[in-house]
């Protein structure tokens, strides 16, 4: 790994210390070269790494490319003129799906530092644990008198700084919990660590037989391991959520009063400014068209699969995609005030409502912490009374009870399972954004799908090509090739006949394409423009001279795996529903294709959320799968929600799980993995309770020894981790 | 038992060496992509000569 790819901190490259000039060069190069980051949901092997890195390196202007397989992304160091779009196109030709990420918003260095800090504490605790254990084994196997005391002193010298350094995360959390008047898992943990260290130090100075330094450090080590796993899961999810949010276009082309265009951040746009929206671009603001005609794809906002016409005075909303002609838009609302952001605010409100879900771990901790404290207190008081005031004995037994009951396995029970499960789902192309999403996913009984962009790709596909005569198809192809409209592009891609010899072809933005063929005028475009009766389904109309118009109808291409996902979910006994904002004909057709009986069409965004709420009130646990802005409120209202990576960022923010790849089939498997992992978590709780059921009476009776504590602790932790690994 | 005077410092030193090594690997970012590194060794690239530093940073 070179310095150029490591933005963090001071020079980590030993060679650079010897050759500072080289590092300076590298740094200068880093500033000049644009660093691009692409998400690659489908890379999975050594071959992929070679293919992607090799291919990107051949692109002119690319200095280096490095794939990170763990995060499924590639970092590209390139000259400023290299655009992400060009690289994405290159990778798609190679067969890899790619999405651009904004490295600016990926505050990776911050999360990295946190992770490294935890790992460092874990490393120190591991080192100390092994050394102290070495000394403890000598004591357990019979070291006596001065030798034992010496070993205890050395152990103390190692353990005390270790606990002070490695235990900080627990102490901090415990302090915060106490300040807030709560008893979290961290309070008994901190108490056990500190009490074990304190009592052992006291015993050491009084040449006592038992010292629990190994237990204190071992506790720190195992619990830190659980903490680190937990952190990893959350860090991956958080960075992914950030990077997906970064997919949104933050820039717009503003037209200055003198007619020149400049690219500015959307945040700098004020109401009244003019922006240019090119064909294929996303409308960055809310506004009114002042110039130009085109068609707009509103599917992400409303769920309509049919493009709608736009000309002067048409109101446009941020998030719509301009299809055919350039538009000039007068801004009415930008940034925070735009409809896109208002919707995001709605989502934030719904989000906070859902955060009230209590995870299994929280419930366990809530029941566990008071019991542990009561047991230890009971041991202290009980032994004070039994022994007639022997404080040293009573405190020793209370500490042993605390150490043995300390939720070592409990701390690992959830993170180990969640790490194993989310790792498995990540390889399947599903990203778990929220820690409790798996638990919630395990509880669902109803699945609500959105149509456009979720069960379908939002990419049209001609369906009735064969019903048209050869000449008509050839003319249509010749006209379609001249346009970049999605319907025209779909026709060009699907057609197998050679194009006809059509001359004078010109595109009329917002309407269609026209030309001359064998002396007659030919037109391909909107119904009203060519003079045809509009059909209920998506269609492009062709008119040759005075012949009656022909309709080339299209249907939305099914998302790969849609059938499998619906089938799997249904086989698991879940009710599947389809709720769409699209017209009934299109929804009915898709529902029939997938065998969904329960469908609703032309549902408004509020209607979707209400439908989900009604289901919830009827006692169902709903999984909502959607991608559009019209789905966000429903996504946030559902028990758990999933959105594809192609979804609008508001939708992705509102959902708990993001589907990284194009294939939706993993969804069915995810529900199964979620149920399995919840079962594993429960098993893990049972295992740690079982260990406690055996060890606690022994400790309470005063028979606990440091050896027993060490055995119980490591055995239960290892059992729990192994049980979690069974998920893989 | 006199040997302990030698053995304990030696064991602590060796352990400390391991810890220092761990810190070094951590700072070099060797845990950033465990999955990728596990597969990279299976590639044929750079089998004949090792990759040089300037190959990477460009």
Report on the structure:
The complex is a heterodimer of chains A (728) and B (58). Chain A is α+β, with helices and mostly antiparallel strands and 728 residues long. Chain A is built from 26 helices and 26 strands. Among the domains of chain A are: 107 residues, 2-Layer Sandwich (Alpha-Beta Plaits), CATH 3.30.70; 127 residues; 87 residues, Calcium-transporting ATPase, cytoplasmic transduction domain A (Distorted Sandwich). In chain A, helix 5 runs antiparallel to helix 9. With 58 residues, chain B is mainly α. Chain B contains three helices and no strands. Chain B is elongated. At the A-B interface, helix 2, helix 3, strand 2, helix 5 and helix 6 of A face helix 1, helix 2 and helix 3 of B.
Topology:
The complex is a heterodimer of chains A (728) and B (58).
Chain A: H1 14-18, H2 20-32, E1 34-39, H3 46-58, E2 62-68, E3 73-78, H4 84-94, E4 99-101, H5 108-140, H6 145-166, H7 168-179, H8 186-205, H9 213-245, E5 251-255, E6 261-265, E7 274-277, E8 286-291, E9 294-297, H10 299-302, E10 308-310, E11 315-316, E12 321-322, E13 327-333, H11 339-354, H12 360-386, H13 391-405, H14 408-427, E14 430-432, H15 437-443, E15 446-449, H16 451-455, E16 456-462, H17 470-480, H18 486-494, E17 503-508, E18 512-517, E19 520-525, H19 527-530, E20 539-544, E21 550-558, H20 562-571, E22 575-579, H21 584-594, E23 598-600, H22 605-617, E24 622-625, H23 629-637, E25 640-644, H24 649-654, E26 657-659, H25 666-700, H26 706-725
Parallel strand pairs in A: 15-22, 15-24, 22-23, 24-25, 25-26
Antiparallel strand pairs in A: 1-3, 1-4, 2-3, 5-6, 5-7, 7-13, 8-11, 8-13, 9-10, 9-12, 14-26, 16-21, 17-18, 18-19, 19-20, 20-21
Helix pairs in contact in A: 3-4, 5-6, 5-9, 6-8, 6-9, 7-8, 8-9, 8-13, 9-14, 9-26, 11-23, 12-13, 12-14, 12-25, 13-25, 14-25, 14-26, 15-25, 17-18, 20-25, 22-23, 25-26
Chain B: H1 3-27, H2 34-40, H3 53-57
